[in-house]
Amino acid sequence: MALTANNKFTFLGVLVAALVIGLVAWSYHKKTSNTELVIGISPPFANPLKVAVEEAKQQGINVKLVEFSDWNTPNITLNHGDIDANYFQHQPFLDNAIKETQFKLKALDKGVTTHVGLYSKKYHSLDELPDQARVVIPNDPVNQGRALLLLQQAKLITLKNPENHLSNLQDIAANPKKLQFIEVEGPQTARAVDDADLVFSYPHYLRLAKTIDPNDALILDDNTNTRYSILFVVRDDYQQQHPEKAAQLEKFIKIYQTSAKVKQTLNDEIGSKLWFPGWK
């Protein structure tokens, strides 16, 4: 059917109106999505952060948490600019990641610091550990170094440089029990407790995996500094490129650090004696 002149004008008017409405809606969506903070996290850190998200919402700060199951993707995604920040790693891990990838990332602020421990379902003390016991440790350079320092603290091995937090298996000077080391990805250490003789792991991952009570460590690290504090990490240029969002992110971090509800959730999720604030 042919359109008359009046019908054409009517049709064009409707089309223009539809376009205007569409542009307004798109603009609103873009504005809304641009004001939302997106933070990449590891699952064990989720619940305390969710509490902070709810409190931040009451102050007009919208935060979306995106969970990653590994320790590589959060930095890749952040470096690409797909998220505003991530929260899963400590400074030695970040330093090593930047060294290996040349990513332009930096720590914005500190979160919690957790102790680490050696765990076993087969033995009730380190003295019971037999020769050639199978010991699970992380396979990444930084957390493997942390595991070896704890094994040295437990007097199970001796390192060539007792102070080197980046030691690896080749840096073991003495291994009197001839321990057999099994290297796995850090998050998987919590699930290895059922099979190995001894496992180095993290209370928050053990709590999530429900494989063993995090308080039942045969030994905990005696570290009380904040070298291993979990960091809120952003791109190097984030504050310059996104000053308003950076300000919102800093407010969110302050909520996380000071909220009584967040503190209680951290106690519930990790254990009150197994973490301490890295920002103090």
Automatic annotation (TrEMBL):
Keywords: Lipoprotein, Membrane, Palmitate, Signal, Transmembrane, Transmembrane helix. One of its GO terms (cellular component) is membrane. SUPFAM superfamilies: Periplasmic binding protein-like II. It comes from the Bacteria. Gene3D superfamilies: Periplasmic binding protein-like II (3.40.190.10). It is found in: Membrane. It is a lipid-anchor. The keyword Signal applies. The keyword Protein transport does not apply. The chain crosses the membrane at residues 9-28. Belongs to the NlpA lipoprotein family. This is D-methionine transport system substrate-binding protein. It comes from Acinetobacter tandoii DSM 14970 = CIP 107469. The lineage of its organism: Bacteria, Pseudomonadati, Pseudomonadota, Gammaproteobacteria, Moraxellales.
